[in-house]
Amino acid sequence: MAETPQGQETLSNLLHESRRFPPPEDLAAAANVQADTYAEADADRPAFWAKQAERLKWEQPWDRVLDWDPPFAKWFTGGTINAAVNCLDRHVDAGRGDKVAYHWEGEPGDTRTITYAELKDMVCQASNALLELGVEKGDRVAVYMPMIPETVVAMLACARIGAVHMVVFGGFSVDALGTRLDDSAAKVVVTADGGYRRGKPSSLKPAVDEAVKDRPAVQHVLVVRRTGQDVDWTDGRDVWWHDIVDRQSTEHTAEGHDAEHPLYIMYTSGTTAKPKGILHTTGGYLTQVSYTHWAVFDLKPETDVFWTAADIGWVTGHSYIVYGPLSNGATSVMYEGTPDTPHKGRFWEIVEKYGVTIAYMAPTAIRTFMKWGEDIPAGFDLSSLRVLGSVGEPINPEAYTWYRKNIGGDRTPVVDTWWQTETGAIMVSPLPGVHSGKPGAAMRPLPGIAADVVDDKGESVPPGGGGFIVVREPWPSMLRGIWGDPERYKDTYWSRFDGLYFPGDGAKRDEDGDIWLLGRVDDVMLVSGHNISTTEVESALVAHPKVAESAVVGANDPTTGQAIVAFVILRGEAGDGGEDLVKELREHVAASLGPIAKPRQIMVVPELPKTRSGKIMRRLLRDVAENRELGDVSTLTDAGAMDKIRTAFGSGSGDDD
Ligand code: 6R9
Fold first, then answer.
1. pTM exceeding the 0.85 threshold for the entire prediction
2. In a domain, 200, yes or no
3. How does it get modified post-translation (predicted)?
4. Does the Cβ of 520 fall within 6 Å of ligand 1?
5. Tens digit of pLDDT for each residue in 387-429?
6. Which of 372, 424, 529, 585 has the largest count of CB atoms under 10 Å?
7. By alpha-carbon position, which residue is closest to atom 10 of ligand 1?
């Protein structure tokens, strides 16, 4: 966070919200987790997590729950466990083999229904195939795939044999894939000819060919046939999935791996160029992912149909498409494609078709649906839904109420879940049967999680105060480090405050003591000596009936230090904007948050630059607002977005007074 000359200023607390949505009575009465769990967990945190670990099947019980040698934690030391066995064999052995694990829906409309027994067979076959290809325990396997069942199979096969999966989002460039292959020294790449996106096949194999060309460390490329596109072939290196996996035995005897055995690496780019390989291990990760999936979504595995509408290449997909739902024996939906193919009601059609009861998605998707208008979801039967979740960015209060009303029928709780690749699982979130929902607030640290909001000196802030979110005690699914770089792990997360984990997000505690996340600290603006969060200004803009989405940045300003520059996307029915609307929006922000937050400029744009998980890349917008060359754009989902924004900026649709 930028500091004032005195270094004292914390985040200004500008936004106020008085709407409350109590849990439905029947949901509250039958909720998996009740209010007394907080006190139980506070009384003895390690004992609480040990109890949650017992929800899983251990091959050998642990000797010690926690070894804490700050900032390095080990959980469930001495215990051995197999993540794939917990996700599959355990359920099949208990007679639940015929239960559906995934209702998979391809973008073109093809479908597959896969039971736990079938998934187990597929994973055993893939495990045997990886072993045949020479993959050994501890080796890294890259997974560069579309959203198809084989992606889950590849991950679980790695987990089963103790190889470390490293999933790279299928939308990433050759360079992004290449640097991740180098850093992880992956031995095998699992990919596909392509996947379906926006109504057409989108190839993957050519990017892998290019990336592995000068990387002899990659010994094999295992290729799933999905689209039937032509592919180049390198004999000896390339192997078709159907050639090697299908002929394997469906028997594979899994061993228990050490609780601290690496499960996966997931790269996150952060603000600097070199991505960080976040390392997760087995026992603690699975414990917290499994518990939070059950607690936060109030999962009833016998009856719920759970859907995380996110990519597996994002940590949200790892934790809440794969390991959470499967470890809990849930039935999930998995969807390959985009929300507007072949029509803008595709998500709601899927909810109706499979009777989805719990849906989890990013605010960026919700704001896109707002832009498209409420008539679209209104055309489908969404009455099966009973809990909705949000993840990835702060959810603006207006987007929250829109989601609750138009998707949740004004009936479902909405859980705003704050966490990170680094935290592995949800950390701060309301519990749907306990809390009255408050639009825009992530509310409370989950039972067993010692998160807090602190000021610049690391002191807890009182209600009404702003500052930084931190975590005071280790948690089971915490990252175990940055792959190959322990110093960077210490510097990035443990050097800002002595003994506290620093996630890098701004936060405030409201008068009721509830937590609000206010965006990345690097994005906080310093306007005339006030630290103002981008989130609050964006939320004020989204609260205007003509605005669907907005991104706010601080740009250098000779008089105020930084000035607020806003980029907005209008709702479908709002027309193209124009000077009057820009003026109206500036006044609207000033009226909601005070004159200090009035944007200097507002640009109406057709799109915003986003990452794979839909996070707005404000850094690039700052480059535009300050007329600089653009920085690294390799993790953008749509490289064309920036051109359109530059054009809009250059044509001066802003208001400069
Ligand atoms: C799970 C995930 C982590 C960053 C995190 C924060 C932002 C995620 C949020 C949220 C406000 C929420 N973030 N969830 N901000 N409210 N509910 O997104 O992981 O891709 O590593 O991003 O995302 O800034 O620090 P990851």
1. yes
2. yes
3. Acetylated. Deacetylation by the SIR2-homolog deacetylase activates the enzyme.
4. yes
5. 999 999 999 999 999 999 999 999 999 999 999 999 999 999 9
6. 424
7. 393
